[in-house]
Amino acid sequence: MIDAIGGHRDVGLSLWRGLRQRCPNCGRGRLFRAYLKVVDQCPVCGEELHHHRADDAPPYFTMLIVGHVIVASLLAVEIAWRPALWLHFAIWLPATLILSLWLLPRVKGAIVGLQWANRMHGFGDEAEPEGLLGAGPPGPDEGGGAPPATRPRASGSSGQA
Ligand SMILES: [Zn+2]
Question: What are φ and ψ of residue 6, in 5° steps?
Answer without folding.
Answer: 80, 5
